[in-house]
Structure formats: C-alpha cells, structure tokens
Amino acid sequence: MNKYFKQFLIVIAAGIAISSCHKIEVKPNSLYTEDVFPKTDAEFQSVMGTIYTSLRGHYSLGYWFAQELSSDESILPVYGGNWFDGQGYIQLHRHNWNKDHGWITTVWNDANSIAGLCNQTMYIFKNAPEGDSKNTAIAELKTLRAFAYWELLDMFGNVPLDTVYPSPGVQAKATRAQVFTFVESELKAALPYLKTATGSSTYGKVTKWMAYALLAKLYLNAEVYAGTPKYNEAIAACDAIIASGNFAVEGRSTYLNQFAPTNGPSFKEFIFAIPYDPSTSNGYLFHGRYDLNRNLGIKYRYSGSTPGSYSFNQIIMNQTTGNGLVNARPSGPRATLSSFYNAYFVSDANDIRNNQWLVGLQYWPDGSPLMVSTTKKGYNQFYTGSDGATAMTYHLYIDSVFSTRQDAASLDMGNDEIAWNMGIRNIKFAPDPNSSSRNQSNDAPLFRYSDILLMKAEAILRGGTATNGQTALSLVNSVRSNRTTSPAWTTVTLEDLYAERAREFTWECWRRNDMIRFGKFENAYGFKTNTDTYRRIFPIPTSAMNTNPKLVQNPGY
Questions:
Q1: What's the confidence (pLDDT) of residue 306?
Q2: pTM across the whole model
Q3: Is residue 224 part of a domain?
Q4: At 177, which CATH number?
C-alpha cells in the first residue's frame, strides 16, 4: 500500500468512533488532492477496508448477543458470580434490559459508526475520477450504509438518518417507515452498479446478490417495519438471486462444513459472508470460547489444546502441563434451552443439523468415555460430607436442563462441575484447531442461499404470488432434501416453516427477527416471563440521548 493510501486510511479510521447522531464538523485534510484519489478498483477497495473491518468486529459480539440472547435460542447464565457482568446477558434473556444496557449501546454505536464511515468515504470518493470503478465503489458504500440502517431499523425502529458528510448537525429521528424507504431506495439505486461475480474475487464484499438478499429480508419484514406487506416484492428479490444460477443448497454431507474453520468462497450457499482470521486483532469470532463445554478443550483442540504424548482417557481438572499436554479450557458459559432443542431437533434422527449440538454423555473420538477427574466438592459445591477433598472421576455428561442452584434471581447455576455442565452446547461454528488463541478462522455467513429459498416460501405462504413453478412446499423440500434422508414433506404451514428456520439458521443471528415476525417474541421460555410488546425494539442508549437532544426515547423505556 503506498503512502497516500495509508494517509487515506488514517483519515477514515479516525471516524470509526463517531456515531451518525453526533455533530461532525471536521472536514478531510486538504492534503488529499485529485492526484492521490483512488482510481482503480483495487485502490477503491483498499480505502473501504476499514468499513469491512468494523463490520467484522461488530457482528460476532454485540450484534450476536443482542439478536440471539434476546431469543429462545441461546442463554448465557451466571456461574457462581462468573459471567454476571452487570446482568447484561441475563437481562437480554429475561427481556428486562434498560436504556443503559452495555451490549445494546455497543450495537447502536457500531451501526451508526459504520453508516458514518460510509458517509465519510463517499465524501472522499466524490472527487475521484469518474468511471466504472468509482460507480461500483459508491454503490458498495451505499449498500453497506443501507445494511447499517437496516440493523438500526430492525433493532431500534425510529432512528436519525444522517446521510451527509460533513454532517449539518444532530438529526431528529425519522419514522420507521421513512428509514424503511431510505434503505429500499439506496439498495435499488446501488443494484445497477454492483458486481455480479461470485467466488474468491468478491468473497466477503458486497455484490448485487448481497443487495438483493438484503432487499428480500427488508420486504419480508415490511409489515413489521412499515405497516404494509410487500411479499411479492420479497419474492421478486429472491427470484433475482435464484435466476442468477450462481448459488445452490449445500448437500447433507457438506452442510456443517460451511461453518468450519476451513470455510470460505468455495461454498455455493454463501451470498455474503464476513471473513474472520485468528491472526487479526479484531477477529472476534469467539464461538469456541463461549459455546464449548469447559472439559472439551482437548477433544476439540480448542486454542491449541492437545493431549501431547499422553494415552489420554480423562481430563484432569486444572492440569495444563506435562508430557506435551496443552489443556486450554474454554470459558463455556453459553448454551441453548432444552425447550428449543426439544422443539426442533429430536423428531428427525436423520437430520444432519442435529450434529451441531452436544448433549448427554460425551466420548473421545475412538468411542471411549470422556472421564473428568475432580473432587467431591469440586463436582458439587453443596456437598456437605467431611471428605469433600477426596478425588472422584465422572463420565462427562452435558445436562439439557438448567437449575439455578445458587441464586434464582441472578440465574446463578453455581460454580462447580454440575453447574458448568448444564446446557446443551452448540458447535456449529466448530473450534479452530489451528488457532493458538481464542480467535477462530470460521467465516460467518450473513446471507445464505437456503435463506433465500425459505424467505420465498414464507412470502408465498403469507399471500405472495408463487412464481417460476415454485411453491412454498417445493422450496422448503429443496432445502430439507439436502439436510435429512427422511421423506419429503407433503404439506407445509407457516408453523412448519418457522420450525425449519430454527433448524437451519441456529446461531446465525436470525432468531430474534424471525420470532418478532411470527409473533413469538413475547412467549414465555426458559427463565423469561416478560410479555412486554414494546421490547420488540431496543431503547435508545442514554449516551446517544445525552449527545443528541433531538432524540426521543422509544416507547416503554
């Protein structure tokens, strides 16, 4: 990268923390004259790299927690005070978050910052030489900004539309319908100029197909967002992707490979994925750290774990060295509820998607029992016998049921082996055996072709017009035939489709969105009893309200 583009990136990176609701008066340094503006596609891409980096850091932490922990799909309880973290995780589960919630504030700031970065970069690009490269780059920026505003639309409802750089000042909130229209118009304006190529040349970057996928998602939720159904428009956006012939549903044997550390542009379902690399400082895909049971680090080679030269048949608590042993232990606080698992993953033993879960007795790859060595007190902190320090060994069992053994109010399960082994674990994004850190190289697919087919099926079931000889049933079966060897369905209802989406997109940040659209978000599940409908959107963070006096808090908060 030449020195001019390093200067470009310094200017853009400086804006990463600037929310779009902030007053921005600083203009780019006049040092950047026409002769140093990007001219080639590669040069435009190098300047936009900071925006993609911001998206990567945002998606797998704050966004994941807000979307998934507020649904029935995932829970992160407390273990003897560990992971209490100001009640942030359990508030998301119980639906009693407030306007000072840390992860909600993070999501707000991240999405606004991405939108602001897009504004700044478009400002820099405006004096670049005219041509196809410039047109495509600006269309890409418009799509990324539309995605940021779609997030805000989906999660916060009415939000300020700050689309000019330098900003004229703080903005009042636009209505949710106005934000919907803005996102729609930006995507439509971008479509003619976006790249159509797929594969390694555009992997991890915006393409025409990513924009169509976002349009489909926007239209499918139009009744929630703007009060007017747009199911035929959703079908048309899906049809554009289907007609391209660029994508296909992965077969049963390769379904889980899509989420492995070795995934990437070779997977034909990926429409848009966020690449992760454990060597980068913000490659925060930590699924192994959060999801893997603490005693399974060696089996799944978490963070470089290895049994070394041991003939290994048991995990010895806290033993981390000796004879080449490396026993990095995952934190392991995150799991799913038995109600979610039982509803969607026990009825069809032939479904490959069942293999993303760890539950029940655990075994080494050779089939021998995975034994854990501890003490009686270490196994059960409430053990009252005088021999609590006596060694004991047990066969690792992941219990599907949570029990607040230490404190029900704080969802505290306790701090012993029984507690840490509660909760069915998800290993869809399998731990990276080649990473010596807790970062992983699994790329995260944001839009997959199976989602396009199931969105079209849903739009038809909700009243849209079937096209191209495809029915809701044929579309759902085209996905299921690549997931299970069980017979094809003969009928399909919206409830069936809702269940199929749960099976297909677990851990991919779509559950909250689906629950709201299907009217399930207020249901009781796990330790959640709150039925407040206003929690379908999150509060405006206090910090944003303090910065922008024109903001009005969302109802209920």
A1: 86
A2: 0.92
A3: yes
A4: 1.25.40.390
